[in-house]
Specification:
single chain, 803 residues, alpha+beta, Rossmann fold, Thrombin, subunit H, 8-stranded antiparallel sheet, 19 helices
């Protein structure tokens, strides 16, 4: 039997009604007209709605116009030719035949093309075909940077006998694919060659290729058969309608892929010349007042820009629709752009330091009187400090408030009583010499340590010496994996002199560290920004201003120009012009400040295919966007909740680290490829990453751990040996906190004996098998590269130079 049922009426819908509307039935008829909203309000509401509709329509029309403009810019007659890079995933494919078929597609006769750029009036676009040489990693990588479409060519011959697909991609193809993904893949397609005539068998092999290559390529990658002209015509029709995508970093700067490279000797400056690069302007308009970078060669100013007649027009010709050999020599100059000395960007690489910038002027009488008043008001402070300790170092030493230590007399320790009211000049005769001696010994030890671990010049080493150096690095890497940061205290040199540049930290995360303290001389040669984000925003805004600027000082996108780069070394320009017919030279326009040196930080990860250990401050080849330069990176951790970062001696696999180098300023985002060349072998892919930031004030601390072993243990007290070897070192490092590998923390109480043993007190019971450690830190800096750009011999061996 059911329970009692009560009637529940539906609630009145007055939840969103205003108080005035709920009470309007109680008002009189005259008041209703007063409370009711006027017609002007209704008109205002109606007008606001109309304004919103109009605004949405305007935004929609602007987006439609932008897409239409982008489509016309990529497919119109004024657009530069589309660059298609043919890349064979294995060495069994003939790229020359594929390139010839594409370039002669519009001609009825199978004649050899005069150039790698051809116009297709049928498809209403122009095409530049480049063949990536198999086995040349640098050439393949540089061609991929300028490609609008990468066409991966595979051969189906290896699938005839069986279904073994391991030969579709060889190890070199896998390495290049990983590099292409790190750089940023543009639009991709796969051309399948050597398919059988049987339709059923042809579809089966095509499905096998798709199933095994789809996981290595992007989802929008299309597969096309490419054996006949009909297949290539179908590919071209689809390629015409395809919306091309390219990496974002490439659209931030103007660049030019040269169709021809030559030089003009400079009679006024012997040993230099003007490098002439002819090609189509891409991405953005190039200004004659901005700097231009040629990768591997450096940054240069423009002498002038010649706007030439297009050598490959879209309209059909009677003889040929491609660049003829005679026409390429007969350039018709339409306009010449000359730089404005007042607006031209200066070629500044390093800052010129002022040797008198650190000098101090003699204080005035008012300043002396103010200092005397402050000293009189200041309370007398006496600290027990080691000899040679400055005022700034005294701030790092922790106060010892233990009652047991207060009983020790001043004569028992090597420390000195520092009186802050006493004139510092009275101690210069004894203290400064001790500090200078400590710093000199510490620097000599640090330099000797780096020299022992760094590889010497490969040309001056024999094969046995090179093998010994590699073995030493591998042993150091194994020791760093097993005992990270642990070092041995030298016996013949006091620890207070060997580790004079190190200091202890109460907390690595919260303790302060002045980023402007004791900077190296290299910091006087670099540049820094007050607000890096604002500077980047202004630099990118200037690129848009150049696009909208007048034609008197800039060449628009799609125009065929000839750049005159002045003051180029003659031997370097000769090397650049030699391989220009086979592989193009690419020049890149620089943003503001991008020629100046600073400290760049990269987020970097060791590549899985590289087995050798990667040590800090080794020489590597950095490929950052269009730039190429040599650098000695310093690796460190990336701590998000801390302003200090721990230095890493090796780049460990499986995780990201931060690599800091001295390099020209660049604005992110930019991809990074790190290559390593050893013993005359081809370059190997060592690491990949991206540009993180430009910040000289980023603090990187090198950590060392001094270890000792308990000799006698009594509850929370222990006598530790082998951490130091003299009682003076024990007294010097007494303020620094110690810890054990089992989790105990403590402090040094006093030295014991004459061989460096020390008595310690911990916050818990200490075990006999435990290890006592002391952490010390010093700031580390990258190493200045001997040569920022590659030499001429390296350029000639690479076979491809780009910017």
């Amino acid at each position: 039997m059911g329970g009692a049922r009560t009637q529940v009426n539906k609630a009145h819908k007055s939840r969103f009604a205003s108080k005035a509307s709920r009470q309007i039935h109680r008002t009189s008829r005259t008041d209703k007209s007063r409370i009711a909203k006027p017609d002007s309000h209704r008109a205002a509401v109606k007008g606001a709605r109309a304004a919103r509709i109009q605004r949405s329509k305007t935004i929609r029309n602007e987006k439609r116009a932008a897409l239409l403009k982008e489509k016309r810019a990529s497919t119109g007659s004024a657009s530069p030719p589309r660059v298609v890079v043919l890349f064979d995933l294995s060495s069994s494919t003939n790229l020359v035949k594929v390139a010839t078929d594409l370039l002669t597609l519009s001609s009825e006769e199978d004649t050899k093309p005069f150039s790698n750029t051809v116009a297709f009036p049928t498809y209403k676009f122009r095409l530049t075909v480049l063949e990536a040489p198999h086995g040349d990693l640098l050439s393949c990588m540089e061609m991929a940077k300028v490609a609008d479409l990468i066409a991966f060519v595979v051969s189906a011959k290896s699938l005839y006998d069986g279904y073994e697909t391991s030969s579709l991609i060889d190890p070199f193809g896998e390495q290049c694919l990983s590099i292409f993904r790190a750089i940023g893949l543009p639009s991709t397609a796969v051309l399948i060659r050597d398919l059988p005539m049987d339709m059923k068998r042809k579809q089966e092999l095509k499905k096998i290729c798709i199933s095994h290559l789809a996981s290595e390529l992007p989802e929008d990658c299309k597969f096309y058969p490419a054996d006949s002209k009909e297949d290539l015509h179908k590919f071209m029709w689809l390629f015409k309608e395809q919306s091309l995508s390219c990496p974002h970093w490439r659209n931030q700067r103007p660049y030019l892929m040269s169709q021809e490279a030559s030089l003009e000797p400079d009679e006024s400056n012997p040993g230099t010349c003007s490098l002439l690069l002819s090609g189509y302007v891409r991405a953005h308009s190039v200004s004659v007042n901005q700097l231009v970078h040629v990768s591997g060669a450096g940054d240069f100013q423009l002498g002038r820009i010649d706007v030439l007649k297009d050598q490959c027009p879209m309209s059909e010709r009677k003889s040929s629709n491609s660049m003829d050999a005679d026409d390429m020599r007969d350039f018709q100059v339409i306009q010449t752009l000359l730089p404005d000395p007042m607006k031209q960007e200066p070629l500044v690489v390093e800052n010129v330091p002022d040797p008198l910038a650190g000098e101090q002027t003699w204080p005035t009488e008012a300043e002396i009187a103010e200092a005397d008043i402050n000293n009189k008001e200041q309370k007398l402070i006496r600290k027990k400090l080691p000899q040679g300790t400055s005022d700034y170092q005294a701030a790092w030493i922790l106060e010892d408030t233990d009652d047991e230590d207060s009983d020790n007399s001043d004569e028992e320790s090597d420390g000195m009583v520092l009186d802050v009211q006493k004139d510092q000049t009275t101690q210069d005769g004894s203290d400064n010499s001790d500090v200078d001696e400590c710093q000199l010994i510490s620097e000599n030890f640090d330099d000797r340590t780096e020299a022992d671990t760094e590889m010497a010049d490969e040309e001056s080493l024999t094969k046995e010496q090179i093998e010994a150096e590699i073995k030493k690095i591998k042993e150091a890497y194994a020791d760093d994996q097993e005992f990270p940061d642990e070092v041995e205290t030298p016996i013949d040199v006091p620890a207070k002199k060997r580790f004079a540049r190190y200091r202890g930290l109460k907390s690595f995360r919260t303790s302060s560290w002045d980023p402007k303290e004791s900077l190296p001389p290299e910091y006087a040669r670099i540049f820094a920004f007050d607000n890096f984000a604002r500077t980047q925003k202004n630099a990118l805004a200037k690129v848009l201003d150049i696009d909208e600027g007048s034609v008197d000082d800039c060449a628009p996108v799609g125009s065929y120009v000839r750049l005159h780069l002045k003051h180029v070394p003659l031997d370097l320009a000769t090397r650049l012009c030699q391989p220009s017919k086979k592989s193009p030279v690419v020049a890149c326009g620089l943003l503001q400040h991008e020629s100046k040196m600073s400290v760049l930080h990269f987020s970097i990860k060791k590549h899985d295919s590289y087995d050798a250990p990667i040590k800090s401050k080794e020489m590597f080849s950095f490929h950052m966007g269009f730039r190429q330069f040599f650098a000695r990176p310093l690796f460190s951790s990336d701590d998000l909740n801390c302003d200090k970062h721990k230095m890493e001696r090796f780049l460990h696999p499986g995780r990201f680290s931060v690599a800091s180098v001295y390099a020209p300023i660049s604005f992110p985002p930019l991809p990074l490829i790190v290559l390593k060349t050893q013993h005359g072998e081809p370059p190997a892919l060592a690491a990949i990453g991206s540009l993180k930031c430009v910040d000289p004030d980023r603090i990187i601390l090198k950590k060392i751990i001094l270890t000792g072993y308990p000799q006698r243990v009594s509850k929370s007290k222990a006598i530790v040996r082998y951490m130091f070897h003299t009682p003076g070192d024990v007294r010097w490092f007494k303020p620094v906190e110690i810890w054990t590998k089992c989790g105990r923390r403590g402090r040094i109480k006093e030295p014991v004996g004459t061989h460096g043993a020390l008595k310690c007190v911990f916050n818990g019971v200490i075990q006999q098998h435990d290890t006592v450690c002391m952490s010390l830190y010093k700031r580390a800096y990258p190493k200045w590269p001997e040569q920022c750009y590659r030499s001429c011999d390296t350029i000639s061996q690479s076979g491809m130079v780009s910017a």
